[in-house]
Design goal:
By secondary structure, this protein is α+β, with helices and mostly antiparallel strands. It is built from 18 helices and 8 strands. The chain has helices at 19-35, 50-61, 69-72, 75-79, 81-84, 125-143, 159-165, 212-215, 234-240, 247-253, 262-265, 292-296, 300-306, 316-330, 337-342, 349-362, 365-378, 382-390, and strands at 40-44, 90-97, 115-116, 148-151, 170-171, 177-178, 186-193, 256-258. The model is unreliable at 1-14 (pLDDT under 50).
């Protein structure tokens, strides 16, 4: 190697890297990340989220996570990356912009059409982002022999606090990450590595006195700034919640059938997002504003076909139709009462119960009472019978 300076690929391992070599490696890593479609990248050390870990434990203790038991499992692995992997020396955080190309709240006025959260209108981001993470991890290991692990919202990783520590953005009052370049629209992924890469400075909070994300929430899911009660969040209610939608929140759902973009879309930092961004994850036209009537007619096979590669597929047809029926009940469109009436005979008690509520909102009092008397006598599921008794 005489006569030239060794590059990072010539070195035997991380122990041979000088500070200059590490800076050079990080610069090349950043370039490779951008080439793979990541919009931002930063590096932090594992022990930087102690305060966030404390808040997380308080959140779990309060029961704010609802039925998401996986959040409460092994909290020590979540509050410190070293609890998940003792050998990690650096955490590489990466973001992919998925900012919408139109106002995501405009559809809320189209009451006979379904509002699907922006992130779920295309292919599943877990698969898309993980593919890029693995490619970048392979590049890093080839550049310098080291160990790596990749994560994208599927393991005990506190992505948002780590992203703030790595300068990608800050956790806003809605508890989501906010970027000065990309607003509230970033998918996050992480690469844990045994390399000691140069660190980025943590980003500071730029929310100021703004309360836009808190004030727009339809269900008052934020008991205080930076605190979320997931049990009141529409995203939780329509996705994670396995049972009936609690009656107190049904009208607030409007036509939101999968997730909710209100707090994200309200963030003023969205307007400062860079124009002409290349890394948008394309929405599928058929998922931008599908009709409620058409969705209500999906059997299991048709549901799986429509939502192939979509995160929506994970909640299953019955929970999905539960959400669609709540939206039908909120539509004010009497013509949709026939869809609810038909689903009173569905095999799923969850669907039948939601159909009862939808019909109670659209049918005439006389028709509903006539159906109610017969249904209470013949319905086998106690939960559905309770829906009939509670509806009027």
């Amino acid at each position: 190697m005489a006569g030239r300076r060794a590059g990072v690929a010539d070195l035997c391992g991380p122990g041979f890297l000088s500070a200059t070599d590490l800076s050079e490696l990080k610069a090349k890593l950043t370039a490779e990340a951008k080439a793979l479609g990541f919009d931002c990248i930063g590096v932090t050390e594992p022990g930087t989220i102690e305060t966030a870990g404390k808040y997380f434990l308080e959140f779990i203790a309060s029961g704010g996570h609802g039925d998401m038991d996986w959040l409460a499992a092994s909290p020590e692995r979540r509050v410190d990356p070293r609890g998940l992997w003792a050998d990690v020396r650096s955490v590489i955080m990466l973001g992919v912009n998925y900012g919408p190309d139109q106002d995501p709240l405009a559809i809320l006025k189209q009451r006979t059409r379904a509002a699907i959260s922006v992130y779920a209108q295309g292919d599943d981001y877990h698969d898309l982002v993980k593919k890029r993470l693995k490619a970048l991890a392979r590049w890093l290991v080839a550049a310098v022999p080291s160990e790596v692990k990749v994560f994208v919202d599927t393991a005990a990783v506190m992505e948002k606090p780590l992203a703030q520590a790595a300068h990608l953005g800050w956790q806003g009052k809605h508890t989501n990450l906010v970027s000065r370049e990309f607003g509230s629209w970033l998918f996050l992924g992480a690469i844990y590595t045994t390399l000691e890469l140069p660190r980025d400075d943590a980003e500071i909070d730029h929310c100021g006195s703004c309360r836009a994300c808190l004030d727009i929430c339809p269900t008052a899911a934020f008991p205080a700034p930076y605190k979320l009660d997931a049990r009141r969040c529409i995203s939780y209610l329509t996705i994670e919640n396995k049972g009936p939608i609690p009656r107190e929140f049904r009208r607030s759902l409007g036509n939101r059938i999968y997730g909710c973009d209100d707090c994200l879309a309200a963030c003023p930092w969205n307007k400062f997002a860079q124009e002409g961004r290349e890394a948008k994850l394309a929405a599928r036209d058929e998922l931008r504003a599908p009709g409620l009537a058409e969705l209500s007619r999906l059997d299991d096979a048709a549901f799986r076909t429509l939502f192939t590669k979509s995160p929506v597929k994970r909640i299953g047809r019955d929970r999905f139709l539960r959400n669609v029926l709540i939206a039908i009940g909120n539509s004010g469109e009497v013509a949709l009462a026939g869809e609810a009436r038909r689903l009173l005979e569905d095999a799923s008690p969850l669907v039948r119960g939601a159909a009862v509520w939808a019909l109670s909102q659209l049918a005439s009092p006389d028709e509903f009472e006539a159906l109610k008397a017969n249904a209470i006598a013949t319905e086998q599921d106690e939960g559905v019978r309770e829906e009939w008794r509670a509806a009027s």
